Structures are given as structure tokens and as C-alpha cells.
Structure to design on (771 residues):
């Protein structure tokens, strides 16, 4: 943090730096000349003729007028630090925080979700060896700025915060909401293992058909029947809806659990408030477990061939 | 310093060696011993047998073998096939009426539970109407739910007595939907109304070749009787219908068959068969008596219809296959079902199909679907032109019957049933509309057996 602090000190002391940037006022020279020699040459030239001297005096620029520094002054005092771009970013954002510290904030849970740039990503973008502790401090400031009440947030804060966010916002990548069609049906799709189920849920009296068969014909095991209707049982909606399911692929357990997911999704379309209850019942998250692939040298996924003496 | 001492110890032991006990040389010095034992010579080794034997040490634990008494012959099967109709652990359910003669035919008893009277339970047991797969053993006493289809069937039975015409019916429906139980209800209705009930508990017992058979002389094509089965059936008929048979006098002269006194009853006729050779003639005589006008109505029932509609496992003396309809007992049933044998006193012939214990039966499927479509006024399905296994005898046997399809119970009936379970202490959870709807859905839209499986037998899975 020492480098950032020193950079800040520079900014505080030499306020004129920002006002008169050196680089913009400098005129490119026609050719490379050593500075001292050229002074002597230029001084000798007008002594030849007065006419020439008078015309030359207008055309030739007198160097070093208004120049206070002997060398090129960097655009930013952070130039001398280890991470100049990052430093500048921090200075800018800290200034914003001092400026808008008085604005009301919202609790972190209500602040807009931002796809913050990760440390590795920021290192790659800036090409600077950013320390993780420095990154954490900067992100704290950025997250504090994000807490400003969204309706009162100044435009410059929004602009400044874009520097800390990724280009792609994964939070905007939402699935299309399930619509209830004109017949009152909501179609949910669920998967488990190799099975895929489509459930058409409609308000009714608790009749369930799986591939045109009743639950007892479709599933011989009572446990499978129970897991197929678990989304409705857990929310006590079994006698309120009729379900018509198409399911294919996989075995009986997979099919039954695919139906659970499909019915839950369609049920959420009917009653969005049930989503939390369904999540607690384990009907929202897809179970990612599938068959582990076989490996070479193994008999199955993990099994090794039996040891043979020679 | 230390090395010097070590050297010294090496050179000369610090502790003097203990004086050894020198062996006495027996040959040189005379033995100083008073015992003859020591002086005795070691046992002579004369052969390999005298050498000390190597014994292999085993680390195996000795098995603690306790002799277990194995079940005797037939004991396991008897255990498997036993019928348990009561359970003292179940709570007795009060406030349920007993079945009476007309109870099941009345419309208002639809959707109610009724207790089977003890007298009828004994008769039904004699008829082998209870099955091992039914859950009678979970409850204190046998009770039945009278459902809509039951009332429909019983009113048909009542009508048959009035019309003096046989009611021929095939019960069909999906697995565990209560076909056998409806058959049992029909039997109890008949018993309560003093009918004569003849029950063939399993169609497959007749055709799977497990019972003895013998050709009947002078028949063309050859027919076969099953004497042992017939004798058992006669005894069961007598046991179940004793009261009715003892009241009914004979109408025909059977002196050719047996020596019966004047004024003998049907019970005497049934009891006259003491040997299996006379079982079929006696059964035939009894059946002929029962089909005479003026006798009590008859209920003839059979479970597992598909098994009597196939080629049996039996062979004739020239080793040709025997169609099941060539077995006289089966033929007796089939003739009654097809209407060939008239029942002038009314009565019914009811056959129940089975979905578990069955086989490929295209003709039966065809004729039942056609009958059902005809009854419902739908388009009658046509036979499959590419099907080669159609059997005309089966088609003709079934074409004159009516089909009664049994599927799930309604939610109200399911509720009544579940309340009975709850009162028996079998169902511990709160019984409300939601619970009923859940079990109704889990039981495949109210299939009674599946509902039992989902709520009563969860531990048995």
C-alpha cells in the first residue's frame, strides 16, 4: 500500500500537475539534436544578417520557454509506483467515495448484483502484478460504492464501477420464464441421470398420468411413485393439480426423479411463491451425478484388474 | 580405558563358569538307582508307525453346530398357503353392520363397510374363496367395502332369480383392482340368500397337469375327468352348502350310480362319493340335480379364467395335446358360461380374470373387448387379421357373457376404506382429504390393492 499512499501524496501536493500536462504542450522536434549544442548554434545563427535574423526570430521557437522540468514529467504520479494503472483506479474510486460518502445506502442483500472482476482477470487486463491484498482493499471500496441507493446513484459512480466489472454479466443469463398457455397448462422439463421428463401441470383434482398410464402402472415401486409426486406432496398441492407426464430414457428411479423436477418447475409457473418451499424439498436443483466414465487400464470406472502372479 | 576393560572381559570371564553336571557313563560305572524306571530302555522303534507323528496345528474355530429341526414334508407349503383371517393386535372396529341377505343388492349400502358374518366366513373358507395375497391378516375380522360395481353385480344376481335365467359374467380389470374380492362378495351374497355355491378357486389347478386325470369311456372326442380334484370339490361343496343341500330332496333317480334311500337329499348324494372313481359321476349327478327346475339357485364361480381357455398340459393316450375344454370339469363350467346349460332356477356363472397369473390369450382379449364395446355402445373392435392364435372354442365360450370391468374406487369410497384402516390402527397419520387424495393418486387412481401397498404394506417393500 506504500506505493499507493505515495502516489496519493503526489496528487495532494502538486495540484498543478493535472492542470498543465507536459506531454500535450511539447512540440516534436524536426530532428534529434543534443540540447546544449543546439542552444549555442541557434544563438550563433542570427548574428550573420539582421534581415535573416529578424525573419528567423519569428520562425524559430525559442526552446525551454515556460519549461520548469528538465525531463519528461509522467502523466500521473502513479508512474513511479509498482502498479500505476491500478493505483490510478484506486485514487479515482477513493475520491468518489469521499465525495459521495453521505449518500444513503442499502443493505448488501438489496444492492444490485455485479459481476466483479476477479483478481486474475484484473492482473491480465492491466498487465500489472497486483497484490491480492491491494485488490481486496480496492474491491471493498468498489463494493461500498455499489451499496449507494440505486435511485440516487450518480452517473460517474456507475461509470467508475464498470471498470471493476466483467464485460459479460452472468446474472443476466436467466432462463425464459415458463408461461401458462390458454388451456391453463404449464410445461416443465426435468432431467435426472439419462431420463428426461416433460410435465404438463393443470389445475384439477389430483389425477396423474405418466406416459398415459396411472402411477401404479408406470412405477412398480412405491418409493418411485412417491418421488414422482414429491413436488406436489411436499407443498400439499396433490389434490389441486392434474399432471400429465411424458418421460423417456434411463431407468425407473431416474424417470421418477426427473418427473419430480419437471412437476416442480411447472408448479412454480403456477405459484411462484412455492419456489422456496420446493427448493427446501429438493425439487429445484438438478442432481448432476451421472455415470462415471470407464478409464483405460481399469475394468470399470474405478475397478482394477485382479493381481496375477506373472 | 573402557576398551581395556572390554578386552580383559573378552580374555577372561569375570564370572566363573558353573560346574556342569557330568553325564554318568552307564557302561563304565554301575548305575546307582533304586528305580527300575530310569534304567528301563527307551521304547524300541520297530516301524514307521512308532515314530512320533506330525500333527498340523489348525487355527480354525470349531463350528458350533446346533442341530436344527427341518420342517416336515409339506410344512413349508402349508405355511405359505395358510389363510389368516384375524389379527388380535389390530383394534376391533365397532359400529359396522353385518352383511345380510339383501344388503349388497341395495343401492344405499354402496360406499359402506360391512362385516362378513362368522357363519359365512366359515363357508367361504370351505370354498377357498380367501386368497393368501389379500390382506385379511392385518385386521381383527373380515370386512368388505361395498362399492358401486358390487351393488351393480348383486342387483343382477337378484334379477336372475326373478327371471329364472342364468346371469353370465366375466370380471375383468387391472391388477389388484379387487376382482377376486368381488367374486368373494358375490359368493357371500349367494350364501346369505341360500344359494348353492360351487367355486373353483384357481383355473390353473385344472389345466397345469398337477392333478390326476383319467379318460372317460365312450366319449368321442375323448374327454377327461379329474377324479381327485372332483372329490375334493365335492367335499368343499358339501361343507360350504351343507344347510341348503340337506333341505333339498333329489328329483331324479340315481340308483344306477349309488344306493340312496327314498327321500334322500342332495347332501346324501354329495356324500355318497367316498372314492375318487365315483367323484366325477357324483359331481355330474349333483350338477344335473341342481339344473332341474325347483331346486335352489346356483352360483358357479371360477378365478383365473385365462387358464381354462388354453391347451392344457395333459396328453391323451396317443400323446396328443388336450384342449382344456376337453376336461369335463372345465367343460361343465364353460357350458354354463356360454349358456349351453340352462339354469332354470336362476343363478349366476361368474369368472374372474387375473392380470398377474396369466398368459397370451388373444381370443379372450378379443371377445372381452368386443363385449365391453358393445355394452358401452362403442365401435366393436375387429379381430386382427394377422393373428394366428385365435381359438374359436374360447370365443364361443365367452361370447354370450357380460363383462364387468373393475378399476379404482372413487375418492369417497377410498375415504371410507381408509377410515376403516385408521379405526383398525393400521393407519397412524391424520386422515383428511389431502391424505386420501395422496393415497388415491399413489394407488393409481384408487386401485385398492395398490392403495394398500402404498399405505399398509410400506414396510414389506
Amino acid at each position: 500500500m506504500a506505493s499507493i499512499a505515495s502516489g496519493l501524496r503526489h496528487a495532494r501536493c502538486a495540484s498543478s500537475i493535472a492542470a498543465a500536462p507536459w506531454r500535450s504542450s511539447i512540440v516534436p522536434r524536426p530532428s534529434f539534436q543534443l540540447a546544449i549544442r543546439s542552444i549555442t548554434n541557434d544563438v550563433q545563427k542570427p548574428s550573420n544578417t539582421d534581415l535573416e535574423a529578424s525573419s528567423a526570430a519569428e520562425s524559430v521557437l525559442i526552446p525551454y520557454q515556460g519549461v520548469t522540468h528538465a525531463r519528461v514529467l509522467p502523466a500521473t504520479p502513479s508512474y513511479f509506483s509498482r502498479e500505476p494503472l491500478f493505483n490510478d483506479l484506486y485514487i479515482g474510486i477513493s475520491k468518489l467515495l469521499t465525495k459521495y460518502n453521505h449518500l444513503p445506502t442499502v443493505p448488501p442483500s438489496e444492492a444490485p448484483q455485479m459481476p466483479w472482476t476477479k483478481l486474475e482477470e484484473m492482473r491480465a487486463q492491466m498487465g500489472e502484478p497486483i497484490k491480492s491484498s491491494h485488490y481486496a482493499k480496492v474491491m471493498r471500496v468498489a463494493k461500498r460504492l455499489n451499496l449507494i441507493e440505486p435511485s440516487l446513484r450518480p452517473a460517474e459512480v456507475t461509470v467508475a464501477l464498470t471498470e471493476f466489472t466483467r464485460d459479460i454479466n452472468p446474472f443476466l443469463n436467466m432462463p425464459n420464464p415458463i408461461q401458462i398457455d390458454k388451456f391453463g397448462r404449464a410445461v416443465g422439463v426435468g432431467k435426472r441421470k439419462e431420463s428426461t421428463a416433460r410435465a404438463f401441470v393443470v389445475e384439477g383434482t389430483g389425477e396423474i398420468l405418466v406416459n398415459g398410464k396411472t402411477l401404479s402402472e408406470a412405477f412398480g415401486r412405491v418409493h418411485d411413485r412417491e418421488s414422482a409426486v414429491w413436488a406436489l406432496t411436499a407443498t400439499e398441492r396433490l389434490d389441486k393439480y392434474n399432471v400429465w407426464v411424458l418421460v423417456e430414457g434411463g431407468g425407473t428411479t431416474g424417470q421418477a426423479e426427473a418427473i419430480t423436477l419437471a412437476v416442480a418447475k411447472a408448479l412454480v409457473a403456477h405459484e411462484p411463491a412455492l419456489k422456496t418451499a420446493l427448493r427446501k424439498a429438493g425439487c429445484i436443483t438438478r442432481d448432476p451425478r451421472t455415470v462415471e466414465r470407464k478409464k483405460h487400464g481399469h475394468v470399470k470406472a474405478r475397478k482394477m484388474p485382479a493381481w496375477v502372479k506373472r | 580405558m573402557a576398551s581395556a576393560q572390554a578386552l580383559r572381559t573378552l580374555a577372561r570371564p569375570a564370572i566363573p563358569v558353573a560346574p556342569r553336571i557330568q553325564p554318568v557313563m552307564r557302561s563304565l560305572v554301575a548305575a546307582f538307582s533304586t528305580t527300575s524306571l530310569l534304567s528301563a530302555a527307551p521304547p524300541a522303534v520297530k516301524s514307521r508307525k512308532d515314530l512320533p507323528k506330525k500333527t498340523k496345528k489348525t487355527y480354525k474355530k470349531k463350528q458350533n453346530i446346533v442341530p436344527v429341526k427341518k420342517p416336515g414334508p409339506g410344512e413349508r407349503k402349508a405355511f405359505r398357503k395358510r389363510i389368516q383371517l384375524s389379527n388380535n393386535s389390530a383394534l376391533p372396529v365397532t359400529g359396522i353392520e353385518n352383511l345380510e341377505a339383501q344388503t349388497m343388492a341395495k343401492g344405499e349400502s354402496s360406499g359402506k363397510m360391512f362385516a362378513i358374518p362368522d357363519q359365512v366366513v366359515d363357508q367361504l373358507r370351505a370354498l377357498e374363496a380367501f386368497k393368501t395375497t389379500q390382506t385379511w391378516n392385518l385386521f381383527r375380522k373380515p370386512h368388505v367395502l361395498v362399492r358401486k360395481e358390487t351393488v351393480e353385480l348383486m342387483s343382477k344376481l337378484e334379477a336372475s332369480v326373478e327371471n329364472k335365467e342364468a346371469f353370465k359374467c366375466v370380471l375383468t380389470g387391472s391388477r389388484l383392482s379387487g376382482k377376486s374380492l368381488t367374486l368373494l362378495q358375490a359368493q357371500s351374497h349367494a350364501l346369505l340368500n341360500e344359494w348353492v355355491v360351487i367355486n373353483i378357486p384357481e383355473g390353473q389347478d385344472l389345466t397345469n397337469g398337477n392333478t390326476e386325470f383319467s379318460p372317460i369311456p365312450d366319449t368321442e372326442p375323448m374327454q377327461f375327468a379329474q377324479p381327485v380334484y372332483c372329490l375334493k370339490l365335492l367335499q368343499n361343496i358339501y361343507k360350504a352348502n351343507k344347510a341348503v343341500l340337506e333341505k333339498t330332496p333329489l328329483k331324479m333317480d340315481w340308483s344306477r350310480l349309488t344306493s340312496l334311500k327314498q327321500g334322500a337329499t342332495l347332501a346324501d348324494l354329495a356324500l355318497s362319493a367316498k372314492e375318487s372313481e365315483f367323484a366325477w359321476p357324483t359331481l355330474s349327478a349333483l350338477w344335473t340335480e341342481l339344473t332341474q327346475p325347483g331346486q335352489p339357485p346356483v352360483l358357479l364361480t371360477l378365478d383365473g379364467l385365462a387358464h381354462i381357455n388354453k391347451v392344457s398340459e395333459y396328453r391323451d393316450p396317443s400323446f396328443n395335446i388336450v384342449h382344456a375344454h376337453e376336461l369335463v370339469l372345465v367343460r361343465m363350467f364353460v357350458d354354463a358360461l356360454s349358456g349351453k346349460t340352462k339354469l332354470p332356477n336362476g343363478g349366476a356363472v361368474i369368472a374372474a380374470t387375473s392380470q398377474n397369473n396369466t398368459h397370451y390369450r388373444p381370443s379372450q382379449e378379443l371377445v372381452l373387448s368386443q363385449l365391453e364395446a358393445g355394452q358401452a355402445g362403442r365401435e366393436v373392435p375387429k379381430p386382427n387379421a394377422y393373428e394366428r392364435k385365435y381359438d374359436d372354442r374360447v370365443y364361443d365360450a365367452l361370447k354370450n357373457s357380460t363383462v364387468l370391468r373393475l378399476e379404482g374406487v372413487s375418492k369417497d369410497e377410498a375415504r371410507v376404506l381408509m377410515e376403516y384402516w385408521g379405526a383398525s390402527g393400521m393407519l397412524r397419520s391424520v386422515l383428511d382429504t389431502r391424505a386420501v387424495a395422496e393415497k388415491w393418486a399413489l394407488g393409481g387412481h384408487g386401485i385398492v390393492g395398490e392403495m394398500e401397498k402404498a399405505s399398509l404394506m410400506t414396510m414389506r417393500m
Summary: DSSP finds 14 helices and five strands in chain A.
